[in-house]
Specification:
170 residues, mainly alpha, elongated, single chain, 4 helices
Length: 170
């Protein structure tokens, strides 16, 4: 008996057709899967944006309430109503201990203290107005420059021409 060939011509053609179909459909299938993943990512991003918009709308609605605005002015800016004496109690144990409490005679109990910035003495610094902090930093920068050692071989400054009124010469 004659040996039958392992693959017939029909089987070979069928395998070639199947391989061609797989090769033809591979790229569109990969594109479809990647587009579905991108759509899912965009939907998640849109959901996060919607949640953020809702949170901002709620915050805007709170800011429309005059009582909330007063409470925020008291808490953040240390404002007080006329006739009230505001004060801030600082915890002597420092920021590692319980949060310092703020209270004022006649001020609403919901006023929150100024948050410490985490630096040593941050709660004491929060009690000062912002312009005092800026002035302290300018003073500190000035004393740092004065305490810095002079260069080993300073270059002499060129003589200034007569009538030069530039501020760096005065």
């Amino acid at each position: 008996m004659a040996a039958r060939p392992r693959f017939t011509s029909r089987a070979t053609v069928l395998v070639l057709v199947l391989c061609s179909l797989v090769a033809i459909l591979a790229y569109p299938t990969r594109q479809f899967i990647s587009q579905r993943a991108e759509i899912s990512a965009q939907q998640a991003k849109a959901d996060r944006s919607r949640q953020q918009v809702e949170q901002l709308r709620r915050e805007k609605a709170r800011w429309q309430d005059p009582e909330y605005v007063k409470a925020q002015a008291r808490a953040r800016l240390h404002y007080a109503m006329p006739g009230e004496t505001p004060y801030i109690a600082v915890d002597p144990a420092g920021p590692a201990a319980a949060r310092p409490s703020a209270s004022a005679s006649g001020v609403a109990a919901g006023a929150a203290p100024a948050a410490s910035d985490g630096a040593p003495g941050g709660s004491a610094r929060a009690a000062k107005p912002w312009y005092a902090s800026i002035w302290d930093s300018v003073d500190a920068a000035d004393t740092t420059d004065a305490a810095a050692p002079a260069p080993a071989s300073p270059r002499p400054l060129p003589p200034s021409p007569a009538g030069d009124t530039s501020p760096h010469d005065h």
